[in-house]
Design a protein that fits this description.
The chain has 9 helices and 5 strands; from the N terminus they run E-H-E-H-E-E-H-H-H-H-H-H-H-E. The protein has a 5-stranded mixed beta sheet. It binds glutathione.
Length: about 210
């Protein structure tokens, strides 16, 4: 029996989980879901109703994307994403998840938060971008010369930010961040985890992820 991942293709949390599963070659049955119509099987495993959810073959449920990343990399970490200061990486990822993501959502869905303007939300989100730009002006990746857990946990959110207003992002003053993001988006790893899967229906055959290269 193989592990099962409930996923949603465009969700940045699910993307980061798939990145770690793919790099560590942890094979899963991928169940692509629709957020508006979550399968009962997934809710029975994790009642909070967020993706990603990983069910291990021994029944263990891992329903936080970062925990899925760490679980996968602890089994196999061929590119040493876990190398470096774990505490510092977690602290930056925390800032991403608990501060930046909030501003990103408000920037993206500004019409749902009419108390302030789109510009206001974007400027708050930019505090985090500036911090990343500063780091990337010294080294090509957030924690040095090579990709780490922090890059892969944060990049899907920066990609989402860049897509809210592409024209604005393209002319924005974040040269190092833009190169870092472009390298990620053009990477084989990212392309491979963004492959489209049919929506999972109970009766349907299972999709295997990652695909054997
Ligand atoms: N802390 C969770 C957050 C996951 C999350 O919020 N995922 C979003 C999709 S990007 C979700 O499932 N939202 C529930 C919904 O929209 O109903 C994690 O890291 O896995």
């Amino acid at each position: 029996m193989t592990n099962t991942l409930y996923s949603f293709r465009r969700c940045p949390y699910a993307i980061r989980a798939r990145l770690a599963l793919a790099v560590s070659s942890q094979s899963v049955f991928l169940r692509e879901i629709i957020l508006k119509n979550k399968p009962a099987e997934m809710l029975a495993l994790s009642s909070k109703g967020t993706v990603p959810v990983l069910q291990l073959s021994d029944g263990t449920v891992v329903d936080e994307s970062l925990d899925i990343m760490v679980w996968a990399l602890a089994r196999r970490d061929p590119n040493n994403w876990l190398q470096g200061s774990f505490t510092e990486m977690l602290s930056l990822i925390d800032e991403n998840d608990f501060e930046f993501k909030g501003w990103l959502d408000k920037y993206k869905y500004a019409d749902r938060f009419p108390e302030h303007s789109t510009l206001y939300y974007r400027e708050h989100a930019e505090d985090f971008l500036m911090q990343l730009e500063n780091r990337l002006s010294y080294t090509p990746y957030l924690f040095g010369q090579k990709i780490s857990l922090a890059d892969m946990a944060i990049l899907p959110f920066i990609r989402q930010f860049s897509g809210v207003d592409k024209d604005w992002f393209e002319q924005s003053a974040y040269p190092f961040l833009k190169v870092w993001l472009a390298n990620f988006i053009n990477s084989q790893l990212f392309t491979s985890v963004m492959k489209k899967y049919p929506i999972w229906l109970e009766s349907e055959q299972q999709s295997i992820f990652p695909e054997i290269q």
